[in-house]
Amino acid sequence: MAFKLLWSLLIRSSVVGAILLAATGAIAADMPVPAKPVTDAELLTSNGSSESEQPTAPAAIPAVTPIVQVLSPVPSETAIADEISTEDKISTEVNEFELDFAEQEPVEQNLVEQNLEPVGDRFGNDSMAQITSVSQLSDVQPTDWAFQALQSLVERYGVIAGYPDGTFRGNRALTRYEFAAGLNAALDRINELVQAGVEDLPTQADLDVLIRLQDEFAAELATLRGRVDNLEARSAELEANQFSTTTKLVGEAIFSVSDYFGDSDNNQAVFQHRVRLDLVTSFTGEDALYTRIATGNARQFSQQPTLPVDLSPGTPDLTATAEGSLTPRIGGATDNDFVLDWLAYYFPISANVNAYVSATGGIHSDYVFSTVNPFFEDFDGGSGSISTFSQESPIYRIGGGAGAALNFAFDEDDTFVLSLGYLAETANDPSPGSGLFNGDYAALGQLTFTPSDRFQLGLTYVHGYHSSDNPIFDLGVGDEIFVGTSPANLVHIDRNVPAVTNSYGIEASLQLSPRLVINAFGGYTDLTLIGTEGGEIWYYGLGIALPDLFQPGNLGGIFVGVEPYLGGLDGGLTYRSAGFETDTTLQNDTSLHVEAFYKLQLSDNISVTPGLVWITAPDQNSGLDDYVIGTIRTTFTF
User: What is the pTM assigned to this prediction?
Assistant: First the structure.
């Protein structure tokens, strides 16, 4: 027994030395780093737009940074430890610490995923059949420094196999999993030989080679020790100062200089801003909790509304049409107060079903698979178009707040995806006429058809209830209008009655070339003023997006359409003028929205976007002067 044990230890030392000989060159090379979401409306869904300025997410939910798995130490048999302790410790620690350090990259849009090759790929468990000669490896030549070691492992011990393409790829780094697999294969083979009584396996030459290798690579091993010490220090500093192992911070800051031009101009040039800070947390690697803090000071340019609505104090933004509204108006606050702008959680239920729950600030574009408006849609952020109308169809701006949604994919390619969602504006209020089901709400259903990566079609339906003091297209905020004319938003408020809406929309996008994309949408809202009469609201638009215009990363866009307008009422387009008993006829002229912008991408994190919006016959009234809103938007993302 003592004789066999001695031979076993010697043989294992010899084979381990040969394995290290074949791997040391790869270990000494630079270790590979594993490869690594919203814009406002496209971060939550393929084309989702985030109503309260969510830069979030996306259809795809970011995955959390994976945790490096560490193998248990190799069994500490005396002879094995004596021969390989130094090399094994350094190789495994370099892999472990470099992977750990690489995992500290920020989230963005979609977090780090570690792709590990199967253990058997280097040592034959799941690769090509066991080779009988090193010459079968096409990338191993007799002049290679490790040729003799590989030849010995193949021909004497039979523990090496290559990749299915007949290569060994000896210059790439060795992972701990692969080393463990190779070591296990070698030890198993040695045990077989020992049990078979083979007694001439180890030779003095083998032991001499092992000793020579230890001396020859002493400098490289010392270098690796220095790298490990450096990585340990950097890793310790990160662990001591990191905000969280599960949470990443992403943000966007917008500076905009804007002015209003028109014959009846009572507005001044303004310098406005909005800041969003998103904490993105993942607990399983497949889910995402979004917590957004926002602030800002952007206000709408003023213009006398067509309807003489007498609203309660504290609602100045309802005194003007929302046509031509710029995206920095959405979300945040108008007095630089910090607010919890959005709190939502995304998580998968199964391979084809994803869920969304919003506690506050939710909008339909957060969860729908796509708003079908690529390049213009940025969840009301600073990287897409400049207006709230061109970013997404107004149908997604009906209602908002707290609620839940589901996305059902009918196939693995997401050719057909059904989105269903419900959002309540006053879900937290237990008083009568409020709450999750008795207050203002909007329920959405959408079928998105994506037959190819160049064409997409969406069919959308929204059913909503609107109390007598909340506009139609209000994103669940209640005291602001974000798109459309005042008649379309306020006619039920003017009559002091609640309204029920049933809205039908169609959205389409066609990519004619990598640098030319055409988007279009149209919608109709059947309006019922409870206890009185019914009406109809219409809206439609066509956009041309020019990605990489003049320079990669830049974006040009032209958008033409008609913002939501009141097309008719059963009792005629009339309203009761304040203080009078006679009815006044309401104008129904076409208010045209024409927009052009050009985003200049100065760097990965900074862009400047000049743009213009021209509104004709404002508030669907040709008696009002046309106006133009010009803006220069600077966007910082991090």
Answer: 0.68
